[in-house]
Amino acid sequence: MNLKDLRRQILRWAMGWPGDSTSWGPPRLPPAKMVEVARESKTEIPELIPVHPAGKIFRKKPAIPIGCPAHPAFDIPVAPQTPTYLAQVPGGRVVGPTVAVLTSADRILSDVSLDWGRPGMEHFAYRRFRLPRCQDFKGSALVLACTGSDTYFHWLTDALPRLEIAARARGEGWRPDYWVVNTLDRPFIRESLSILNIPLKKVIPLDRNPHIRFDDLWVPSLPCESSSGDSPPWIVEYLQRSFNTLKPSIFLPRFSNYIWIDRSKSKSRKVVITTPQKGQLCANGFSLIELTELTFLRQIALFQNTKLALGPHGAGFSNLIFSKSAGIFELFFKDYINPCYYALSQNMDLDYFYHILPYSELERTEIDSDIFEVILKRFK
Fold first, then answer.
1. pTM reported for the whole predicted model
2. Going from the N-terminus, what domains does the chain have, and what CATH number goes with each?
3. How far is CA 17 from CA 9, 13, 108, 131, 195, in A?
């Protein structure tokens, strides 16, 4: 038996220790979904309010490959729509940074506690002999935090829509005493919460308070099961209703309606274009934009007016939610194909194009001139 297996065996044995994971050891009960816990224990979840029914999401337009063979990842004419609920969890706890939501019986709610790529019993919280010290807060809290929602895409499509789930379940006027998020260090998180009139002094970030407990914890489902990226239409409707009415165009610098999303300074999935290629883009009416340099409001304004967004796969394409009629053109490296923005684009009935580069990011990041010509030719 190797050390990793021995550690796992000791941790499983530790689940039988007295006390609970606020003092030592991992959570004492195995994980379960909110629906299952609500059915079995009115102590752990006395109320589970259904909001969105299960259904199907239909893709209206095919994804169109440009200069490359079609990829099966985009062959998704129909996807499941996740049913959503709002759960009341008295004495509930939240642990970060890999988010875990626990009941008073020391059980992880598996459908809102993701450790990507790991099954429930391999969650971060079950792999620790001691969790961070638990802080107690009086009153109620609404959980927005989920693994990954410190990033732009998951903040928009996983975290913020949970406000809509809570509003539909409890009524538009209901407000908790606190809101729980992954972090407040991201400008787009602070800005969007302020726009929604959520006081930042009542927002508790897990990166500064990694283990917290409340008298009453209100836990919305994740809008997409396992953060799959299959965003249903109601998410887009909610975000457009919340932010598109702000008409922030007065804050927007002068940009073309055709944009290249520049990720050359990003840590991953960056496509580096040469100086001559930048010249070609400008000559064809494109503006080169680093979206991370724009405020949340300016990104909304930009995509409200964009006719074509072109660039490597990345979170900036989340802004297509705010688009009226943009075409979307994504570039992928051959070893990472994620159709989440194609799925998202279909909620707005947008045209979607893609090209898969015949090499991985580890092999190179510069785009061949002949491939670049093929892409530009499509839109000249």
1. 0.94
2. 19-55+83-228 (no CATH), 248-379 (3.40.50)
3. 14, 8, 17, 15, 46
